[in-house]
């Protein structure tokens, strides 16, 4: 379904599981988990069906960021972290969601970090999964070289330094398999993802180049779980450790996954979903 969030914008939203469930003589309200996808330029499809296993704990809300996937197209002037971060609040207002648990994966983690800075009292909990706080080009290049040798480093440097359709296509064909350490459990998943390269290139060539999200993290006012695969080349371990250290000590939690790449639930789903379940229910 599409939800109006104001100023003519509509987001595609999918909801899994009831929010109220029978519990003896009462109806018990489950927390709402909002899943924000990566990219930019991709859609929410990568969360399905894996995240369905959390539907017993939480009502799950998937959506496509403004301008992405099945959400309405929007002008490039709205393709900004501030707008995408504020959309979380707009979406919650439209759906009547209070105190959500917000999960941001990769680029969705950029959005979640800006959301923490702009709306620190809005969420009940935040999960920052496989994400970074800056471009960190040299760190990325070194990680890709460790995973795939000099050719992987060269492809990564060409795309992240000179983003274009040509450099992205070469990069994606040449290094996408290095993002994870194990074969995909669902090899057809990538074919289900809707991709908008215009948004991807707009962000990588613009806001991504000077990205700096650490300072805003000190405003966090709820528990924040940082999840990182220790062998993630695109959002390296060091980035996650710096994010963790930037959060207020009383709110921060860290989950490291050895031998795991980008999106811990892809390479070690048993461990990753155990951590998620504990954090959601805790």
Secondary structure blueprint with pairings:
Elements: E1 2-6, E2 9-16, E3 20-23, E4 26-29, E5 32-36, E6 59-63, H1 81-95, E7 101-105, H2 107-118, E8 125-129, H3 137-161, H4 165-175, H5 189-192, H6 197-205, E9 224-229, H7 237-246, E10 252-257, H8 264-267, H9 269-281
Parallel strand pairs: 5-6, 5-7, 7-8, 8-9, 9-10
Antiparallel strand pairs: 1-2, 2-6, 3-4
Could you characterize the architecture of this molecule?
GO terms for molecular function: aminopeptidase activity. Residues 31-263 form the AB hydrolase-1 domain. Keywords: Aminopeptidase, Hydrolase, Protease. It is a single chain. With 282 residues, the protein is of the alpha/beta class. It has a single domain (2-134, 180-281), classed as Rossmann fold (3-Layer(aba) Sandwich), CATH 3.40.50. Helices cover 37% and strands 19% of the residues. The chain has nine helices and ten strands. Strands 1-2-6-5-7-8-9-10 form an eight-stranded mixed sheet, sandwiched between helices. Strands 3-4 form a two-stranded antiparallel sheet. Helix 1 packs across helix 2 and helix 3 (137-161) crosses helix 4 (165-175). The protein is globular and about 65 Å long. The relative contact order is 0.15. The mean pLDDT is 97.
Task: Write a compact overview of the structure shown.
One of its GO terms (biological process) is proteolysis. The chain is an alpha/beta fold and 282 residues long.
């Amino acid at each position: 379904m599409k939800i109006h969030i104001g100023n003519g914008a509509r987001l595609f939203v999918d909801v899994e599981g009831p929010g109220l469930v029978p519990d003896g003589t009462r109806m018990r309200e489950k927390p709402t988990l909002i899943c924000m996808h990566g990219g930019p330029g991709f859609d929410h499809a990568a969360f399905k069906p894996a995240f369905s296993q959390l539907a017993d704990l939480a009502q799950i809300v998937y959506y496509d960021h403004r301008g992405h996937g099945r959400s309405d197209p929007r002008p490039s002037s709205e393709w900004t972290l501030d707008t995408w971060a504020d959309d979380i609040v707009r979406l919650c207002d439209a759906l009547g969601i209070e105190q959500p648990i917000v999960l941001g994966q990769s680029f969705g983690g950029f959005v979640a970090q800006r959301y923490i800075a702009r709306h620190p009292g809005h969420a009940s909990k935040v999960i920052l999964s496989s994400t970074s706080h800056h471009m960190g080009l040299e760190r990325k290049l070194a990680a890709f070289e460790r995973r795939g040798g000099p050719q992987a480093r060269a492809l990564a440097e060409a795309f992240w330094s000179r983003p274009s359709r040509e450099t992205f296509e070469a990069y994606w064909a040449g290094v996408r398999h290095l993002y994870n350490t194990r074969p995909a459990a669902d090899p057809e998943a990538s074919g289900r993802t809707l991709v908008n390269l215009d948004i991807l290139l707009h962000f990588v060539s613009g806001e991504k180049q000077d990205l700096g999200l650490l300072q805003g993290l000190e405003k966090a006012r709820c528990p924040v779980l940082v999840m990182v695969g220790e062998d993630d080349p695109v959002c390296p371990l060091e980035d996650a450790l710096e994010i963790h250290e930037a959060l207020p000590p009383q709110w921060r939690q860290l989950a490291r996954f050895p031998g795991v790449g980008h999106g811990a639930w892809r390479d070690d789903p048993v461990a990753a979903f155990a951590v998620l379940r504990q954090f959601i229910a805790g």
